[in-house]
Amino acid sequence: MITKHQVSAICLSAVFLLAACKGKVEQAAESKQVCISDTLAKIITIDTAKVTTMKNELNLSGEVANDDNNVVKVFPFSSGQVVEVKVSIGDKVSRGQTLAVMRSADIAGNYTDLSSTQSDVSVTKRQLEQAEYLYKSGIASERDYTEAKENYNKAVAANTKVKSQLSINGGGNTSANGMLVIKAPQSGYIVEKNITSGSFIRQDNGGSMFTISDLKDVWIWANVFESDISKVKAGYTAKVTTLAYPDKVFTGKVNEISSVLDPDNKVMKIKIALPNPDMLLKPQMFTNVVITNSENAQSVSVPAKAIVFDNSKNFVVIYNGKCDLKVQEVSVIKTVDDVAYIGAGLRPGDKVISKNQLLLYDAITGN
User: Fold this and answer.
1) In the prediction, which pLDDT does 295 show?
2) Whether the Cβ atoms of residue 89 and residue 202 lie closer than 8 Å to each other
3) Which contiguous run of DSSP H or E holds residue 247?
């Protein structure tokens, strides 16, 4: 049962509520007429809504890798022990620069064989000359002369073989005491080093000693989940950012798409080739990759900076004249590359204010 005092309180509350509503209506009525002054006109920008093809964005994670076409791996040609390593990871090296020095029993053995075969060549050459003289004098038989000639040819072949082995194993960077100097086959940066001073290199070692890359171009390998495979194609634009340079955007295109999924993490790999003239991108850097592509669907679009977000809604300030401005709520489908695609609230040809529109929005709405 409602008492007399309760009825009085309810009536009083209703009066205050009506007064408040009346105040808001009056305030809204007072805020309708807003004009753009000559001073304000100089600092605003007016854009026209137009129909455009919508773009789509796909965010991926990736990693910087060497361009395999510009990478050289340095392998050991002989077994032995590393005596000295003269470079570290990240060092810039020039073609022909010494990378490491090692002592090799194989090299020392090759020089011993070289000395032995050279002696054989000298001996068999004298025997051949003697056999030839005797044969022409009618003292020795043709068989003796032919045999001496074959022995000489065998000695020369054995000597040539040893020289070839030394050339392949050292290329002039070896010495008779078994020292082997490892030199850089090209200029670039040391991106991988797998040896240290004192390391022993075996003949069956299949790993490289160093990896050299010029880093003028790098590859970005990005991961695409199975649900997004249809959204990526070769030729799509890719924008790459890194933790090291969050404000710098590297732009490239999708060059290659893997035909199989990675068996470990069930993602498809895509490759993006990027120029790296300033050497900012380093192998193993983590990256964020944004793939942009155009869809067939079209929509009314305006610059994204024209959108005013207030009270969980999106608005624009429509310009019809200096004293004819209107705040219009719009439905934003998505925003890609600083362009807002509008689902409802704007028509092609509508003019919107896209710079310093917040000043006018506040004046019109009374905020």
Assistant:
1) 67
2) no
3) none
